[in-house]
Fold each of these.
Amino acid sequence: SQDEFQKQDADLLSLALDPTREGFASKIKVLNLSHNNIGKEGTKVIAKIFEINNIIEVFDISKNAMGVSGA
């Protein structure tokens, strides 16, 4: 659906939060993505960014559609 947070949306967000990307200048410490209808594939893509991003201190993905396998 149009309201669903798609995998390509998650890919773009991951790129924006990637501290290894040339020109990275984000100082985001709190990221609230609750109530965004993020599915399991989007959750998996976003989760990978935390392997390299240690700037974000608070991350809220409550009230999404990730299901058990996305969590």
Amino acid sequence: ATPATIPSTQATEIASQRYWALVREAQSEFASAEYPEASKTAREAISLAPDENTAWEIYREASVAQAADE
């Protein structure tokens, strides 16, 4: 099915699932001290759900940790 044929609630659910998968990936990267990767993954999640705070928090923490490493 093309995006135009997916009902909006299903499309929203797919985006939400993708968002949370990216959040988990960013959390894992952060835990492994892969700060640039965590930041990038969190930004991707933010693009899907900019009003959701979890990815923003990971992005902020990863950015601070990355700056401290430099």
Amino acid sequence: TPSTSRAVLVVNGASRRGAAAAATAERLMRAQRWRDLEVHRLDGGAELPATLGAVVATAPDLLVVGGGDG
């Protein structure tokens, strides 16, 4: 259940709508009671491979990735 599970949100904040999407996604996930929510707002796509590698290594129950322009 969300209240007992760990979720990670990774968003490219440099994408056209990334910053707004990150805020909305975080708000909605917290409303669903994802208490253990880790949020990564990236400054560009170049950070994505290293960030995802590190996050996947921690085996979250849910991983949400967003923020592409295409």
Amino acid sequence: ITLPQGISAKAMVYIMNKSAIPGIPSPYYIKTIYQGYLDVGINTTYLANICGNCGFSLEQHLIKAGQHPH
């Protein structure tokens, strides 16, 4: 992507379906995102921080989805 300041950066983005209702993602969805982080070698601390900022625990969501954090 190119930021407004003209700086280029690699990024992963999510474009939400127009019919989706914003809210806390399901444990299964978080498990899928977590696995993607592991698959491509992204530090999962970033995901944990984002989850915490949104008011829920990454670890609790993963356990609900049947996966224990690495």
